[in-house]
Specification:
Strand content of chain C: under 5%
CATH class of one domain in chain B: Mainly Alpha
Helix content of chain C: 55-70%
Chains: A alpha/beta (about 350), B mainly alpha (about 290), C mainly alpha (about 350)
Radius of gyration of chain B: 25 Å
Strand order of the largest sheet of chain C: 1-2
Number of helices of chain B: 11
Largest sheet of chain B: none
CATH class of chain C: Mainly Alpha
Largest interface: B-C, 93 and 93 residues
Structural class of chain B: mainly alpha
Number of helices of chain C: 14
CATH topology of one domain in chain B: MetI-like fold
Order of helices and strands of chain C: HHHHEEHHHHHHHHHH
CATH topology of chain C: MetI-like fold
Distance between the termini of chain C: 48 Å
Order of helices and strands of chain B: HHHHHHHHHHH
Shape of chain C: flat
Radius of gyration of chain C: 30 Å
Number of domains of chain C: 1
Oligomer: heterotrimer
């Protein structure tokens, strides 16, 4: 009888293989030479739009699969430096140290701009709250522990806050979103800059850690009285309430593509050659203060010419087709000056 | 006299009461233990069954935010990795078990091997994962299905070894001696006589090891890595069912949660079928007879 | 004797010289005592075939090689972990395990919060699992009606078959809200005075992780204890019963006392599993490395910090610190498992203690 069950098991496995073969035959090119598999890893911040781009690119270019795993910017930096993936992605630009330590020389190529929004789940509160920057810093420093703290009430007159403890949620993995968030907090709170600092992975004074933008959004969604920071699209897609943040000009701004584009305006004019620039707490009435570029990390030289060609082709496709999809997904497209700079840089990849 | 008999009766009553009390506790313990099992299984079926449709078994994941999609590539990926692991781990495990049962009886080395196999069984899978990452993924400079297969193979070896040894030791010596007496060389005896006799039990052991590694996630985090597309190249990252369930479970997307429940149901059914088959064969008994 | 029964080799189709027909003349000719010059065909055939010594030796060598591969696996894991954690070993030395830091920004690492988290969750799990497991084992071996015996032990083993990630999934969506909304407030109300249930309760934390671990190690302890109890000879039980003991007293004196060592071994095996459990724990523990008395507080364990931070450890010291944690976990689980196995062996392999 065991022989029979073995045969059944083998047949089932074989059937799966056949189904798989048929599927891949349907979706991949018939000629072997054009079949390509690229692997990338990194930021969860742009993952929604990257997954859409890679899926559309695969449909437009049959046989070329760009497999992207969203494991966090820290993971992207580490894996591409170790050369275990073909390209990385990060919303925290690599430091000089990290660039020097990498096994392969890397170039930052900006892809889109996005916003990090404060999300919260407070029973009874459904509107958009206003958050002052120092209030956010103090929540994560553990100085503000309850929702009905007077400092929150000051910026939100008329809102009934419950007398419950705040559960701050942060990123437990190495995260570019954390980098953007802590970069902003370091600029607006000297206490934060001294005690915690800015990085993809910091020592959080209080709170609970979750993996990825997905994990933080999931946790906040499920836990009453919680507070977290995620990329805008995660809040939008999951219909979560998110707050407005006061910018450097003193206005409370709700995150939007316009706010992010306004924040990038000043930087776009003076973009450094390696694209590593911070646009948090940018000047301007309509600027959203927690905005950032997000970058692809591409090796400047590669021994695999086919892969380099595919990457260059994809990046060009991104500029031609991908950027137009950005705003529908809650990201801001690259400013035009930056786009032309990027075209130049793509040409320099070998 | 009266006092003594009274004391004796009290004592007996006390002891009887204690007896019943403990029996009650034991029954309560069993109920408490079986309750989470029932809860988990029912919840799985309730949440997962509604999401199981043909698309689940034939489609790859849809991009974030888009409905539909399935976990077909994860199921296939798991199949590929498990196949690799079985091909690498089962022969080594059976050979080691053969050594322990046939060639090493009573020797110090055999005892050491047996002990080490038991101990290796208890090493956390995540430690194996980071070891194989350092050995295979880093020098090769890419994640791969092969690395995933290797780490699961290493995890299968101790289980297969021990069950093979135990099954072989139930083969009656009389059969072996008969074959040897007929002039069959030792190696042929082992292959054609001992292994063949013990094969139901050995297959049982392999299925047990299979069921154990089928659900492993942690080591695959650093070796197989995951893939949204179909992947047949052993040198490329590959999706795996438990890995995908983990990624979906910690996400905020309801669609992905649905898939995670469905995937868990599929995984559990696979594993439970294997465990049940193991139980059936084990209870049917291998060759009955003195050893 | 019919010729076809002569050799087993024939059936497997190996190429052998044609078998000589077995007539009495053949036997008569093969007379070693007389040293007859005409050798028997059988003897001829046997000596030509060779002793098979080479084949035997190489087969045995191959089996030995595979057996030694188990040593190789363990040695290799140890070697690679040590080599890759070299940086961290050199930087922090032994103090790594007594410091309470984990700051990737400044490169300051200390594993004490994770050790605390691992020990606390494992101990909680043992506290909850051991009485239950023993209860189930006692029930199944001694008290249970015969027809129920197999189904119940089978169901308990099914608990062991459920993968860790499914436990985590169930934990996140069922247990965490349960802890947050029902169990947590109940515990604060009744046992809040002990200080163990202070602080805000968000469902994730030490207690939830402990509960999931308890469910996971229960089947191991229970099935091993059952095996150990079954290994106690019936003479022990009968002897105690003959002295007038109640059923529970018989179990306590006749069975449990004899299998004490084995049961401790089974418990240690459960502990070994709890120490290394990763996926379910990392989904419900809160990933916040700190040491707090409250069971509601989030924490982190050795295994879950590796799972969470390994692929993204930027910086070689960070990665090396994580690998050092892996090395520590490896060594600790090996030691715990070794002691546990020795104890279990002592009871189930050798003669049971006090055998009649």
């Amino acid at each position: 009888m065991e022989r029979v069950s073995l045969k059944i098991a083998a047949a089932v496995l074989f059937a799966f293989c056949l189904t798989g073969c048929k599927q891949s035959a349907n979706t991949s090119a018939t000629s072997e030479s054009s079949a390509q598999n690229l692997n990338g890893a990194g930021a969860t911040f742009p993952y929604p739009i990257y997954s859409r781009w890679f899926s559309e690119y695969a449909q437009a270019h049959p046989g070329i699969h760009i497999n992207y795993q969203s494991i966090g910017s820290g993971g992207g930096i580490r894996q591409v430096s170790e050369q275990t993936v073909d390209f990385g992605a990060s919303d925290g630009p690599m430091t000089d140290q990290q660039l020097a330590a990498s096994k392969v020389s890397l170039m930052h190529i900006p892809s889109v701009l996005g916003a990090v929004v404060p999300v919260y789940n407070i029973p009874g509160v459904t509107g958009n709250l206003n958050f002052a920057p120092d209030v956010i810093a103090d929540i994560y420093l553990g100085k503000i522990t309850k929702w009905n703290d007077p400092r929150l009430a000051k910026d939100n007159p008329g809102v009934k806050f419950p007398n419950s403890a705040i559960l701050p949620v942060y990123r437990s993995d190495g995260s570019g979103t954390t980098y953007i968030f802590t970069d902003f907090l370091s600029k607006v709170s000297p206490d934060w800059a001294k005690k915690v600092g800015k990085s993809t992975s910091v020592k959080w004074p209080v709170g609970i850690g979750q993996k990825g933008n997905e994990g933080v959004a999931g946790m906040v969604r499920q836990s009453p009285s919680s507070f977290g920071y995620v990329e805008l699209i995660y809040a939008l897609q999951n219909k979560m309430t998110y707050g407005a943040v006061r910018n450097a000009s003193g206005k409370f701004v709700l995150a939007s593509t316009d706010g992010v584009t306004a924040a990038a305006a000043a930087a776009a004019a003076n973009m450094p050659a390696d694209y590593r620039v911070s646009i948090t707490n940018a000047p301007g009435d309509t600027s959203y203060p927690i905005s950032s570029f997000t970058w692809f990390l591409i090796p400047t030289h590669s021994s695999d010419a086919a892969k380099t060609a595919t990457l260059k082709d994809f990046l060009t496709w991104m500029l031609d087709h991908g950027e137009s999809e950005a705003s529908s997904m809650g990201y801001a497209p690259l400013p035009t000056q930056v786009q032309s700079m990027v075209r130049q840089s793509i040409a320099n990849l070998r | 006299m009266d006092l003594q008999s009274k004391a004796m009766r009290l004592n007996t009553a006390r002891r009887a009461a204690t007896n019943h009390f403990i029996s009650g506790l034991a029954i309560l313990a069993t109920v408490i233990v079986l309750a989470p099992l029932a809860a988990i299984l029912f919840y799985l079926v309730y949440k997962g069954a509604s999401s199981l449709n043909l698309a689940f078994f034939t489609h790859v994941p849809a991009p974030v935010g888009e409905p539909g999609g399935g976990m077909a590539n994860s199921i296939l990926g798991s199949g590929v990795i498990l196949l690799l692991a079985s091909l690498m781990g089962i022969p080594v495990g059976i050979a080691a078990g053969v050594y322990l049962a046939e060639f090493g009886r009573g020797k110090m080395l055999a005892n050491a091997v047996r002990f080490t196999a038991d101990v290796l069984n208890g090493v956390p899978s995540i430690v194996m994962g980071i070891a194989i990452y350092s050995l295979v993924v880093m020098p090769q400079k890419h994640f791969s299905a092969l690395a995933g297969g290797i780490v699961l193979a290493i995890m299968m070896v101790p289980t297969v070894t021990r069950t093979t040894e135990e099954m072989l030791s139930t083969v009656p010596h009389a059969i072996r001696e008969a074959a040897l007496g007929l002039g069959v060389p030792k190696w042929r005896t082992v292959l054609s006589v001992s292994l063949r006799t013990a094969s139901p039990g050995i297959i049982t052991g392999c299925m047990l090891a299979f069921a154990r590694v089928a659900g492993e996630t942690a080591p695959l985090l650093f070796t197989a890595f995951g893939n949204q597309f179909w992947s047949f190249n052993l040198n490329q990252p590959i999706a795996a069912l438990p890995l995908q369930i983990y990624v979906y479970a910690i996400s905020p997307f309801d669609e992905w949660h649905r898939l995670a429940w469905a995937g868990s149901l599929v995984l559990i059914v696979m594993i439970m079928v294997s465990v049940t088959l193991v139980r059936i064969y084990a209870s049917r008994g291998v060759l009955k007879g003195g050893s | 004797m019919p010729p076809s029964r002569m050799t087993t080799e024939r059936e497997s189709g190996s190429s052998l010289p044609a078998e000589p027909s077995l007539t009495p003349a053949v036997f008569a000719a093969a007379d070693p005592a007389t040293g007859d010059a005409t050798p028997s065909p059988i003897r001829d055939y046997l000596s030509r075939r060779g002793s098979g010594r080479f084949a035997d030796a190489s087969f045995a060598a191959l089996m030995l090689l595979c057996a030694c591969s188990i040593f190789a696996i363990v040695a290799f894991i140890f070697w690679i972990l040590t080599v890759r954690s070299h940086l961290s070993l050199v930087q922090f030395g032994w103090k790594f395990f007594s410091r309470s830091a984990w700051d990737p920004v400044s490169g300051d690492f200390g594993a004490l919060p994770f050790i605390y988290g691992t020990l606390a969750t494992s101990l909680l799990a043992l506290l909850m699992a051991v009485p239950l497991a023993l209860g189930v084992a006692v029930f199944v071996t001694e008290l249970c009606p015969k027809p129920l015996r197999t189904p119940i032990s089978f169901l308990t083993e099914l608990l062991a078959a459920i993968p860790s990630v499914v436990y985590g999934l169930w934990g996140v969506f069922v247990l965490v809200p349960l802890m947050r909304d029902v169990v947590g407030p109940f515990l604060t109300k009744t046992l809040g005075w002990s200080g163990l249930f202070s602080g805000p309760n968000f469902g994730v934390g030490l207690l939830t992780a402990g509960i999931i671990l308890a469910i996971m190690i229960l089947p191991i302890i229970s099935s091993l204890t059952r095996d150990i109890m079954l290994a106690v000879p019936n003479s022990q039980r009968e002897g105690v019963l003959a002295l007038g003991a109640t059923r529970w007293e018989m179990i306590r004196v006749g069975v449990l006392r004899n299998s004490r060592i084995g049961i401790v071994g089974a418990i240690m095996l459960g502990l070994g599993r709890a120490l290394g459990e990763t996926m379910a724990v990392t989904m419900v523990i809160g990933n916040h490395p700190n040491i707090s008395k409250s069971l509601f507080a989030p924490a982190n364990t050795l295994a879950s910090v590796i799972a969470g931070e390994f692929t993204e450890a930027t910086g070689d010291l960070y990665l090396s610190a994580l690998i050092e944690i892996g090395l520590a976990l490896f060594l600790v689980t090996i030691v715990v498992n070794a002691i546990a196995r020795l104890m279990v062996w002592a009871v189930t392999r050798g003669a049971p203690v006090g055998a009649a």
